[in-house]
Amino acid sequence: MVCHHHPRTRGAVSMVTFVVEYAKSGRSSCKALKRKIEKEEIRIGKLLPNPFSDDDDKPMATWYCLEGFVIANERARKHKVDSVDDLEGFEDLEEDDQELVTQELFEAKTGKKKGSKRKSSSKAEKKKPTKKAKKAKKSASGGGGGLAGKSVCVTGRITGMTRAVAKAEIIKAGGDPKSSVTKNLDILVCGSDSGSKKALGEAYGIEIWDEDAFFEALGKGSSSSGGKKAKPKSKPTKKSKKVVMEEEDDDDEDDTGEWACHLEFVKGTSNKFWRIKIEKKKTTVNYGKNGTPGVTQPKVHSSVAEAKKYANKMIKQKRSKGYEDKVEEDDDAMDEEEEEEEEVDDVKEDDEDEDEDE
């Protein structure tokens, strides 16, 4: 049972409380995983009364990253978080981050009911190999015999294949082609000149294949052993150039782009604004009252496509709550006046030219 009733902002901390927030700096560390918590990353704090201070408004805080808190919460025998209602500040998180926290805590509770080993000295070490073991098992059953039931993302240049051909081959082998890297991805195929997707895949612990393993799974043989999809020996320069150009176009679709929207609240008299912009893989939300700088919240996504998807989702949500697109009527009127003035000036110049000719 969780022992907390009073938010920090409403009085002294006399019991154990929990708070979730975005890290204000990069100075805190996760107690469970012994790693640095980056600025703007979700962190969860366990707040205890400070026995060394007479000021009850300054509790002792122990910080965890989200993954580390899930582990610590599973091990705890008292002072546990049973639901998101036990987390102060939960409502201040963005909607997708609320879903993430809820999902992680729910998974932790489910794992406990199924009999997770409480006596284990390192739950994180046992959890990660289990995930990799499942992927290795899938790979062993599917290697050389198709990609049935697997989600596969291809990045970089694959010998003799355009991105479109690679996706078609994945579907033909029973797989599910993906254009972005997420934690749920099964296999990441990395060709030459692999970029940020490979680093992201390694960070997520995703199984990574080179193109030889990919060709074997397709039943084509390796690219270096003369398989059907190996680079042709005749006219290699022209063929290779075409493939490279198509791959670069595909990468441009994933890694570049810019988009913006400005909304204002029209239901009531609160005079609020909300806007969002995309700078490649980064979204920046800015909101507040008109006439003020407002609050800015940046967020980095795995790809431009994911950033746009997130932006569209947030825009739909805001419009459903009474926000509408900002109308720049004054700017339009000024533009029309400038056009009229230019037309008048042109007429005057024509008249002057005619007078000079006479």
UniProtKB/TrEMBL annotation:
<dbReference type="InterPro" id="IPR001510">
    <property type="entry name" value="Znf_PARP"/>
</dbReference>
<dbReference type="InterPro" id="IPR008893">
    <property type="entry name" value="WGR_domain"/>
</dbReference>
<feature type="compositionally biased region" description="Acidic residues">
    <location>
        <begin position="246"/>
        <end position="257"/>
    </location>
</feature>
<feature type="compositionally biased region" description="Basic residues">
    <location>
        <begin position="228"/>
        <end position="242"/>
    </location>
</feature>
<keyword id="KW-0863">Zinc-finger</keyword>
<dbReference type="InterPro" id="IPR049809">
    <property type="entry name" value="YehF/YfeS-like_WGR"/>
</dbReference>
<dbReference type="InterPro" id="IPR036957">
    <property type="entry name" value="Znf_PARP_sf"/>
</dbReference>
<dbReference type="InterPro" id="IPR001357">
    <property type="entry name" value="BRCT_dom"/>
</dbReference>
<feature type="compositionally biased region" description="Acidic residues">
    <location>
        <begin position="326"/>
        <end position="358"/>
    </location>
</feature>
<dbReference type="GO" id="GO:0005634">
    <property type="term" value="C:nucleus"/>
</dbReference>
<keyword id="KW-0539">Nucleus</keyword>
<dbReference type="InterPro" id="IPR036930">
    <property type="entry name" value="WGR_dom_sf"/>
</dbReference>
<dbReference type="InterPro" id="IPR036420">
    <property type="entry name" value="BRCT_dom_sf"/>
</dbReference>
<protein>
    <recommendedName>
        <fullName>BRCT domain-containing protein</fullName>
    </recommendedName>
</protein>
<feature type="region of interest" description="Disordered">
    <location>
        <begin position="219"/>
        <end position="258"/>
    </location>
</feature>
<feature type="region of interest" description="Disordered">
    <location>
        <begin position="105"/>
        <end position="147"/>
    </location>
</feature>
<dbReference type="Pfam" id="PF00533">
    <property type="entry name" value="BRCT"/>
</dbReference>
<keyword id="KW-0862">Zinc</keyword>
<feature type="compositionally biased region" description="Basic residues">
    <location>
        <begin position="111"/>
        <end position="138"/>
    </location>
</feature>
<feature type="domain" description="WGR">
    <location>
        <begin position="241"/>
        <end position="338"/>
    </location>
</feature>
<dbReference type="GO" id="GO:0003677">
    <property type="term" value="F:DNA binding"/>
</dbReference>
<dbReference type="Pfam" id="PF05406">
    <property type="entry name" value="WGR"/>
</dbReference>
<dbReference type="Pfam" id="PF00645">
    <property type="entry name" value="zf-PARP"/>
</dbReference>
<dbReference type="GO" id="GO:0008270">
    <property type="term" value="F:zinc ion binding"/>
</dbReference>
<keyword id="KW-0479">Metal-binding</keyword>
<feature type="region of interest" description="Disordered">
    <location>
        <begin position="312"/>
        <end position="358"/>
    </location>
</feature>
<feature type="domain" description="PARP-type">
    <location>
        <begin position="18"/>
        <end position="109"/>
    </location>
</feature>
